[in-house]
Specification:
With about 300 residues, the chain is of the alpha/beta class. The chain has two domains: about 140 residues, Aspartate/ornithine carbamoyltransferase (Rossmann fold), CATH 3.40.50.1370; about 150 residues, Rossmann fold (3-Layer(aba) Sandwich), CATH 3.40.50. It starts with 10 loop residues before the first helix and ends with a helix. Helix 2 links the parallel strand 1 and strand 2. It contains eleven helices and eight strands. The structure holds phosphoric acid mono(formamide)ester (CP). The site of phosphoric acid mono(formamide)ester (CP) has 9 residues, from helix 2. The site of phosphoric acid mono(formamide)ester has 9 residues, from helix 2.
């Protein structure tokens, strides 16, 4: 089985991943090591930059006894013009047990999965999906608030370019949560009835802020310094309108002072941002274990 999108997972598989990740997380806050995947080889192929996803997939593989091998794309034969398909055929010939890929093009992991015999895991493709981020977000919410069912989650910011928003908008409703999407009109997809950020945050149990992806913008936003934070960002004043005890999330990397104020991002009682990173390892352990076991 491949893990390409939230839709590629059944409800039972989602529950199994979240339960297994919870077991790994509670047994040791950074994820207990075991030999479940001893001798297996996981290829990490990142055509786009990453800190959290790349390192946590590698850590997850090592904690399961597998070896993680990263292709340095900028120093590889991709730089000589080798196509995605030929790169996939080349890597497949080395018989990895799983291949993790991040790519700037929507659908690139599916293209690779059609060529590679081993399971392929999508570590983020263009503006399409980032399924393991959504799974770790759900696991983080469940850990902190003991449930997802019945919660309201406000996802605010650059929705148009956000694969995190797209995967969460598919996953969280399947887990019983209501998702509200809000952001600047020019950063909202055309098919969504826009809410203002203030409307989305009011009464929400979880406020998830998104990075403004200036590298994917066709034109500059033209915002003056401080303007984005004042109009659309998460400030203490806006957070005060959320539900009592509401928590703050951000997939990272953050544009501090743009979509989120420092004191909100660093609030030890409300911010789950570091917990999200921590949860990435057990969630990706559960994902690797599931797809590799299914292929055995
Ligand atoms: N959340 C996330 O995908 O972060 P990285 O780009 O650092 O992997």
């Amino acid at each position: 089985m491949d893990l390409l999108s939230i839709d590629s997972l059944t409800d039972q598989q989602i529950a199994a991943i979240l339960d297994r990740a919870g077991e790994y997380f509670s047994s040791d806050r950074v994820g207990r090591s075991n030999d479940q995947l001893h001798g297996r080889i996981v290829f990490n192929v990142f055509y786009e930059n990453s800190t959290r996803t790349a390192m946590s997939f590698a850590t997850a593989a090592h904690r399961l006894g597998a070896s993680a091998i990263a292709l340095s794309v900028e120093r590889s034969s991709v730089a000589k013009g080798e196509s995605l398909e030929d790169t996939a055929r080349t890597l497949n010939a080395m018989r990895p047990d799983a291949l993790v890929i991040r790519h700037r093009e929507n659908g690139a992991p599916a293209t690779v999965a059609a060529i590679v015999d081993a399971p392929v895991l999508n570590a983020g493709d263009g503006t399409n999906e980032h399924p393991t981020q959504a799974l770790l977000d759900a696991a983080t919410i469940r850990h902190r608030l003991s449930r997802t069912d019945g919660l309201t989650v406000a996802i605010c910011g650059d929705i148009r370019h956000s694969r995190v928003a797209r995967s969460n908008a598919k996953l969280l409703p399947r887990l019983g949560a209501e998702v509200r999407l809000a952001g600047p009109p020019e950063l909202m997809p055309g098919n969504i009835v826009p809410l203002t950020v203030d409307e989305a945050i009011a009464g929400a149990d979880v406020v998830m802020m998104l990075r403004v992806q200036r590298e994917r913008l066709e034109a500059e936003l033209g915002d003056a310094p401080g303007e984005y934070l004042a109009r659309y960002g998460l400030t203490s004043e806006r957070l005060a309108t959320a539900a009592p005890g509401a928590v703050v999330m951000h997939p990272g990397p953050m544009n501090r002072g743009v979509e989120i104020e420092d004191r909100v991002a660093d609030d030890p009682d409300r911010s789950l941002i570091t917990l999200q990173v921590e949860m990435g390892v057990p969630v990706r352990m559960a994902c690797l274990e599931m797809v590799i076991s299914a292929a055995a």
